[in-house]
Amino acid sequence: MALSLLPTVAGFVLLFTLTSAQSRGDNVEVCTQVDAFGKYCPTTCGIADYLNRYKPAMDKDLNDMEEILDRIANKTTGAAEKVTYMRDSAAQQTKSGSDTYYKKSSDMLNEVVRFEKSIVEQESQIYNLQAVLESNEKRMLDLRQLSIQLEQKCQEPCKDTVEIKTITGKDCQEVANKGAKTSGLYYVKPAKATQQFLVYCEIDSFGRGFTVLQRRRDGSVDFNKDWVQYKQGFGYLSPSDTTEYWLGNEKMHLLSTQSTIPYVLRIELTDWDGNKKYADYAMFKVGPEADMYRLTYAYYFGGDAGDAFGGFDFGDDPSDKSFTSHNGMQFSTSDKDNDKFKGNCAKQDGSGWWMNRCHAAHLNGKYYRGGKYTAKDAGESGFDNGIIWATWHSRWYSMKETTMKMIPTNRVTDGDGQQTGGVKQFGGLGDN
Length: 432
Ligand SMILES: [Ca+2]
Known about the structure:
Elements lengths: L5 H12 L26 H53 L5 H54 L8 E6 L2 H6 L6 E5 L8 E7 L5 E8 L10 H6 L1 E2 L9 E2 L2 H8 L6 E8 L5 E7 L2 E2 L8 E2 L2 E5 L16 H4 L21 H5 L11 E2 L25 E2 L11 E8 L24
Parallel strand pairs: 1-2
Antiparallel strand pairs: 2-3, 3-4, 4-6, 4-14, 5-6, 7-8, 7-14, 8-11, 9-10, 12-13
Helix pairs in contact: 2-3
The structure holds calcium ion (CA).
Calcium ion binds next to loops.
């Protein structure tokens, strides 16, 4: 009978007190489905979903209670009718003055007393139930008010404590060139972009500005997304660089194809023992959507993680290396198969990626805590679906953290003395 309203109220209060951080940055007012509220500003439809989730249960509880009250009321009416009937017949029999009926009448009167007693008990039950109902109605009213307040709050644009820096540019290097000294969230507007968008810029003491494209760090964001989601980007940007995201294929296309100075793609990896390695690719480009966001680069520019984009000889097939190289591959998602495999790599592995047949590098793979996993862990398909960089760890080892970021080629080695095949450190970034 007790309605479980209290936890719901607590949930609302919790929602209220959550620190809201910047969600995707753009389209704040659009009702965009997000994975969960997390610690970010909830969307209006997120709230609506939340309300809709608990409402049916509450409605059902109230209906049940109403039914019980009705049943009790019916019983009471029935009993009252019976008592009236018995009173009448007793009175009639007394009136008739017949001795033969005297004992019977007296028994009936006892019955009347018993029924009256039971009516009193039922009335007290009804009274208690009414009190419960009233108190629940009051709680519901409070809840409604709270939800109205919440709705109003959510209609306001997210005023975050998140600081978005004012300097803008066509990419993070230009932002740094204009004097930005600290890493954080900046708006950039690539040459062909119709509007600016938010990115995380990693700016170091050498004045280098890396534009960060992808981040894995704790498995908090599900990377099993469809074509549109990979196109637009998903996950969360944070000024403290503590969240996971995919910036989006369209933005990567705009960023990587805008300049006469080609970009280097830098991939940084951290394993579960805290070891860090990197790989650089020269003349990195992501093609337009018409070409399925094809990945191209000129050559492996260096790094100590090895050239997994170039494919890997797993020993299964003489052509393994060419079947698993990524240069020139179009992007595939579970709902758009552009790979070189008869099946659907992206669907099997639950990710979006530049799939071949399928991969030796797979940074959007499933997040496996602790690193090591087996075909059994990989679920139905049983294929290697972790966060893989096969030239460092085996395909049955999933990385702890990954970063994909880009920088104009002429700046990549500034400050840290990195050369092709270079130094076993991420230069000048203060890894700790
Ligand atoms: Ca296929």
